[in-house]
Amino acid sequence: MSNKSHESDVAFIKALAELLNENDLTELSVKREYGEDDTLNVRVSRRGEVVTTQMSAAPAPAYAAAPAAAPAASAPSEPAEDPASHPGAVTSPMVGTVYMQAEPGAPSFVSVGQQVAEGDTLLIIEAMKTMNHIPAPRAGTVMRILIEDGAAVEYGAPLMIIE
């Protein structure tokens, strides 16, 4: 691989680190194929603050690990109360994009203070072009909505609190 390819790989890895921060993700993993025997595997993680790069045609350049500082620098300190540990937390059953209403311009499925019954649709998570209705796991009152319409969520991320 030429030095020019290494420079574009570094720019690509930096863009992944920025994407990780902008979308509040904990990990990204990408495989880029340049040809039959020439690939680039990149994993950027916020949890362990790990950046791994593997290239099959040539060893990974030492400067490719520089983006590790970007996710770590903007990681906030642990909040005093973790919403995911709340007993009434409703967590995401999948990775996807959250939609709070059935279609743009329609009223939201739920709002803070609203009573919900078990099985009522709380929101939709789009995953792989499929709209998945997320039901209320129990009856109660929506106390907090922890995500915004159009936000990306990960598996296990707290969505709202129902008490």
UniProtKB/TrEMBL annotation:
Boundaries of every Lipoyl-binding domain copy: 87-163
InterPro entries for this protein: AcCoA_biotinCC (IPR001249), Biotin_BS (IPR001882), Biotin_Carboxyl_Carrier/Decarb (IPR050709), Biotin_lipoyl (IPR000089), Single_hybrid_motif (IPR011053)
Pathway the protein contributes to: Lipid metabolism; fatty acid biosynthesis
Molecular functions (GO terms): acetyl-CoA carboxylase activity
Keyword S-adenosyl-L-methionine: no
Cellular component aspect of the GO annotation: acetyl-CoA carboxylase complex
Comp. bias (Low complexity): 66-78
Keywords: Biotin, Fatty acid biosynthesis, Fatty acid metabolism, Lipid biosynthesis, Lipid metabolism
Pfam families: Biotin_lipoyl
Keyword set includes Transcription regulation: no
Region feature Disordered, mapped onto this chain: 66-91
GO biological process, one term: fatty acid biosynthetic process
Domain of life of the source: Bacteria
NCBIfam families: BCCP
Function: This protein is a component of the acetyl coenzyme A carboxylase complex; first, biotin carboxylase catalyzes the carboxylation of the carrier protein and then the transcarboxylase transfers the carboxyl group to form malonyl-CoA.
Protein name, per record: Biotin carboxyl carrier protein of acetyl-CoA carboxylase
Biological source species: Roseovarius tolerans
